[in-house]
User: Fold these one by one.
Assistant:
Number 1:
Amino acid sequence: MSLLYLSDILKKTGLDLSKILLIRHALSDKECKEFYDLGKIKEYTQIQKKKMFPCPDRYKYWITFISNGGNSAVLDKCYQVKGYQEGTTDLVEKDLIREEWFRKNGICFDLEEIDILKEYEKRLVIDWGKGTRSWKQRAINEKEILSIQSKQRVIFSGYENLVLTYRELKEILEDNLTYADWHTALSSVRAVYLIVDRTDGKQYVGSAYGEGGLLQRWSMYINTKHGDNKKMKELICNYPERYHNFQFSILQICPNTMAEEQIIHLENMYKKKLMTRKFGLNDN
């Protein structure tokens, strides 16, 4: 017999359990995994089939969970339902919606993320139960809490093994406690790096030689989406969500004692080798 259930925690929030819907996303589903990798799991949650929600006003709150197999699921986010739109929507980027399908079957919920369960996000693991096909359930259904994981520091994997999606890099840069070793490693070196647009394979070669090292340079891509590069700016202007497909890696590590001119020379050499001026995203 379990000593702790999800309902025990929800009751402490003061929310009415009868107004809460639990949703389980399975990463074994290809479409779900694609949205998850893009950092768009909220948008994936917003778009639903009308027949699955005959009474769309029934629940005021949705709590999403992520499962990667088996019956366990990790708490992802808690949302307040602000409303919904049918047939057409301006709540989600058009390139994320299959228009024909949505006009025929779609309902899109206006979800606002709330922090009432923030301390348990990515940490609280529940047993969804045997009915894993029931991807949405009422919060009044008892869900055993399997664990509440501590946030442990993630060890740096090494420069040669570093290949990061935009979402992964964003998570690392925004969490300097869990990824303290990564911040130390990336800020202590200068480097020539590679960005690949996974949509079409086009490449961009850049270099980091200023104060703060590679960490500071890559943070510009998270803050601006384009790093102030001309061709990337044009790409993001034409395709605003394209940056989610960027992949970051290191071509060569340079010691902090290496002169700026030498690093720029290395950068130009890689541009020439990879022909990124002619076929890629380098403008100069």
Number 2:
Amino acid sequence: MKKDNVLATRSNKVIYRDGDKVIKVFNDDYSKANVLNEALNQARVEETGLNIPRLHEITKIDGKWAIIMDYIEGKTLEELMRENPDKKEEYINQLVDVQMEILSKRVALLNKIKDKMHGKISMTELDATTRYELHTRLDSTPKHTKVCHGDLHPSNIIITKEGKAYIIDWAHVTQGNGAADAARTYLLFTLDGDREIAEKYLDAFCKKTDTAKQYVQKWIPIVAASQLTKGKEEERELLLSWIDVVEYE
């Protein structure tokens, strides 16, 4: 493996390119169970026929767990939006089309998004009354079984030179309500500081899926609470402002 060819560095992993493969190497202290779960979930999603990198191997490199998969040649939607600001709306619509394709799939053995969100809410340092309100709101949401990417952002969609879209980074995939996935994408845009694009995205998602905007907004305090568990101080004030569970009533 050519360790000098770094594609990305994250808090708990480094991602390398080695020829036609991508090697995701996790930190020493990263949970083996989480590595195996991520690989298993990616393999399950691969079977749906979605355009995603094929999983090749789970191994250890220098004593660290690693996942090896296809390298997808192309540019991310994020790069394209930066290079062609006049086409941002076109790219937002493309992102929504990809998201709708993901949500059309079913994988029975994926973890349920409601279970994940209940766990995240319980992990926060929010007061008991707020946690209770969030748990109650979550329980009241309709039960769906759609594949939810969990981190769908323009940086996780690669467009090849032929114009084919590939979806990467399946570490957070679950099954559940598609509105939760849309709320998560909306949150990611807003945390990036691009509120205008966030609103354009939400408008496009709701129009293309014939979903009431209020239905997606019901999930915003829940996904904000989930994000709060990451402990990013620079996000805390904005997230807490969203965890006003009566704001979208």
Number 3:
Amino acid sequence: MNNAIQSEILVLRNRPIAYIASINEDGYPQMKAMQVLEHDSMKTHYFSTNTSSKRVQQFLKNPKASVYYCQEVSSYKGALFTGVMEVCTDHDTKAFLWRDGFERYYPKGVDDEDYCVYKFTAETVNYYHGLKNTTLAIEELSS
């Protein structure tokens, strides 16, 4: 595996915003920008949201998802991770992602029933740069 590609994917994955795609009840993809909060490897990415959001219901019905990171300035680059999204409502996962200031949105704190965490587990990543696409199984990348 080309170390330069892996390095570029790592840089993209550490961008502050990612685009999360779910499938709605009519089978159409829906995209949403979300703040990137945590990763524990190239394979696992975490995001927080409201349990009451429509996307939570979409992921509960169909966990297939994608997460896209991109760099728009100078030369365009993108990394599209494809995998599954888990909706986590357990205390430990929610506490792991909790940040100062979240109480503004979740006044009951980490155990607020309207606070949950998305845990995305990637299966593949497609790296795009310079009119070239490279798709890799996530196991081909080191953490």
